[in-house]
Inverse folding.
C-alpha cells in the first residue's frame, strides 16, 4: 500500500494529486489546486514562483491530512524551457521570466549567425522555437544581463521546486533535454555550443535520470506540512515526459497527443532521430523514461481556446469550456481554418481578433462569434494533427495505426472525434490525468513498487480504461484537409 503525491505545475494552475497504489491498480484524487498567474513588471512577464511554492506547501499539507501523514514520496513536474538562476548561497537572483515574454524576439536568427541551425540540431535534436531556453539565455548574453554575473546555478522550473523541497541541486533528464542545451549523443550538456554563444557553462549542474531519489523533505518543510518521512523523487519532471510515461500503449507503433495548453504530437523511440530531414520538418527529440525518447512536434494547443475564453470573460461573456464546446457543435462545419502555429498566436492578447484577422488575410470566411471561432480552433487542431502524423510516418518509414490522446484535451469529446475523423485513424482517449499518473508511476518505480515502464503501463491500463473514437468516413474532411494543406503551403511560400 503506497501513498504518493504528484505536484503538477501548469501554465494556468498548479495542483496536488494524491495517488494510492495497492500493487495492482492506481487510484488518484486531486487534493488541491492553486492559480499560476504571471505578473508583468516594467514590460517583462515573470512567473510568480514564490507564490507557487506557497501553493505547493499548502497542497502538501492537505495531502498529509488526507493520507494521515503516510505519504512515501513526492515528485514535481512542470512545463519546459523556462528556468531559474541561483546565487552562490542558493537564493533566487530574480523571478524566472515567462517563455511568452518578448525578450527572445530575433534571438534565434542572432544565434544562427554564430552557429548554423544544422549544427545546433545535429548536436541537440531539439526543434527550433523562439521560446527555447537556448535563446532565452542568449538574450541575456546579448543584453549583458548582470544576473548572469551573479548566478552560480541554472535550474529548470521543476528542478527549482525539487531543490526547495529536498535541498538537492540537480537537473532532471527529461526537462534538461527540452532546453536545446543538451547533447543526447554524449549524454551531457552541449558544453562547446554553450561556450560559443557566451553562455556561462559553470551554471549547469549534474543531470539526474527520472526516478532519482533526491532525499527526504527539508526539515523545515516537513515540519510545516506534516510529512516527516516523505522522500522527494525526481519523476519525469517535464510534464509531457510524465504524460507520455502514462500513455497506455498496446501497439508500440501508435502515436500520442498530449493535449493541454500545448499539443505534443509524436511517438516513443529508443534513440534520438537526428538526421537532417527531421530538422527540416522541425521535429524534436526529448528525453523519456526508461531509456526512451519522445520524437514529437509541438503544436499550439488549447492555449488558443484559453486565451479566447479569457478575452470573452473580460468583456463580460463568461463561458466555461464545456459551454464553449457545446456552442461549437452548433456552428457550420469546416468553414475556415487557422495554422495553430502562426507566431501571432503565441503571446497573450485578443485571440478572437487574431483568428479573425488570419482568416481574412487567407481569403476564408471570417468566423463570427464564439461558436464559429471555437469550431475553427478545434477543427484546425484536428487537421494540424493529421499534418504532423503524416510527416511522422515519412520520417519513421511506417504507418501509424492509432492515436492515443492523453491529458486534459482527452475530455473534449468533440476534439477527439474530429481528430479521429481528420486523421482517419482510431483515437483512444485517456487518461485525462496522464501527467499526474505518469509522475506517480515513476515514483512507484523508484520505490520498487513496480519493476519497469512496461509494468507501470500495465497498471495504468488496468486502472484507467481509454474511451475509443472510431473515424467516420467523410469526403468533407478529406476535402477540408486539402484546403488546409494548400493554406499552409501558401503561408509558407509568403513567409519563406
Amino acid at each position: 500500500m503506497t501513498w504518493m503525491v504528484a505536484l503538477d505545475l501548469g501554465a494556468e494552475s498548479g495542483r496536488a494529486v494524491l495517488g494510492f497504489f495497492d500493487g495492482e491498480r492506481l487510484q488518484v484524487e486531486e487534493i488541491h489546486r492553486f492559480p499560476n498567474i504571471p505578473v508583468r513588471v516594467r514590460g517583462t512577464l515573470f512567473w510568480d514562483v514564490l507564490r507557487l511554492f506557497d501553493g505547493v506547501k499548502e497542497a502538501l499539507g492537505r495531502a498529509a491530512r488526507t493520507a494521515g501523514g503516510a505519504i512515501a514520496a513526492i515528485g514535481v513536474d512542470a512545463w519546459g524551457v523556462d528556468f531559474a538562476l541561483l546565487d552562490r548561497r542558493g537564493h533566487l537572483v530574480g523571478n524566472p521570466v515567462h517563455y511568452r515574454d518578448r525578450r527572445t524576439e530575433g534571438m534565434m536568427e542572432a544565434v544562427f549567425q554564430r552557429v548554423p541551425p544544422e549544427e545546433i540540431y545535429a548536436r541537440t535534436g531539439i526543434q527550433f522555437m523562439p521560446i527555447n531556453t537556448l535563446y532565452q539565455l542568449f538574450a541575456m548574453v546579448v543584453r549583458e544581463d548582470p544576473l548572469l554575473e551573479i548566478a552560480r546555478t541554472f535550474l529548470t522550473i521543476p528542478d527549482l521546486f525539487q531543490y526547495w523541497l529536498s535541498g538537492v541541486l540537480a537537473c532532471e533528464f527529461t526537462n534538461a533535454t527540452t532546453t536545446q542545451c543538451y547533447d543526447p549523443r554524449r549524454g551531457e550538456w552541449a558544453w562547446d555550443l554553450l561556450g560559443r554563444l557566451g553562455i556561462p557553462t559553470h551554471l549547469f549542474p549534474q543531470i539526474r535520470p527520472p526516478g532519482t531519489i533526491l532525499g527526504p523533505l527539508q526539515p523545515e518543510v516537513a515540519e510545516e506540512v506534516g510529512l516527516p518521512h516523505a522522500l522527494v523523487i525526481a519523476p519525469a519532471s517535464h510534464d509531457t515526459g510524465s504524460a507520455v510515461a502514462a500513455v497506455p500503449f498496446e501497439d508500440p507503433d501508435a502515436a500520442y497527443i498530449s493535449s493541454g495548453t500545448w499539443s505534443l504530437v509524436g511517438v516513443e523511440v529508443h534513440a534520438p532521430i537526428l538526421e537532417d530531414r527531421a530538422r527540416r520538418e522541425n521535429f524534436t527529440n526529448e528525453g523519456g523514461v526508461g531509456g526512451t525518447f519522445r520524437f514529437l512536434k509541438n503544436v499550439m494547443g488549447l492555449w488558443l481556446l484559453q486565451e479566447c475564453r479569457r478575452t470573452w470573460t473580460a468583456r463580460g461573456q463568461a463561458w466555461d469550456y464545456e459551454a464553449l464546446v457545446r456552442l461549437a457543435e452548433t456552428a457550420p462545419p469546416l468553414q475556415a481554418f487557422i495554422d495553430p502555429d502562426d507566431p501571432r498566436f503565441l503571446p497573450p492578447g485578443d485571440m478572437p481578433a487574431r483568428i479573425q484577422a488570419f482568416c481574412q488575410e487567407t481569403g476564408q470566411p471570417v468566423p463570427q462569434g464564439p461558436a464559429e471561432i471555437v469550431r475553427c480552433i478545434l477543427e484546425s487542431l484536428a487537421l494540424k494533427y493529421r499534418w504532423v502524423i503524416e510527416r511522422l510516418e515519412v520520417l519513421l518509414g511506417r504507418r501509424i495505426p492509432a492515436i492515443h490522446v492523453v491529458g486534459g484535451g482527452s475530455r473534449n469529446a468533440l476534439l477527439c472525434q474530429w481528430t479521429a475523423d481528420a486523421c482517419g485513424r482510431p483515437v483512444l482517449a485517456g487518461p485525462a490525468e496522464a501527467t499526474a499518473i505518469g509522475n506517480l508511476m515513476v515514483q512507484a518505480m523508484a520505490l520498487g513498487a513496480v519493476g519497469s515502464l512496461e509494468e507501470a503501463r500495465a497498471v495504468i491500463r488496468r486502472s484507467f480504461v481509454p474511451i475509443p473514437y472510431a473515424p467516420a468516413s467523410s469526403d468533407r474532411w478529406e476535402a477540408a484537409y486539402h484546403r488546409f494543406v494548400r493554406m499552409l503551403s501558401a503561408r509558407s511560400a509568403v513567409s519563406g
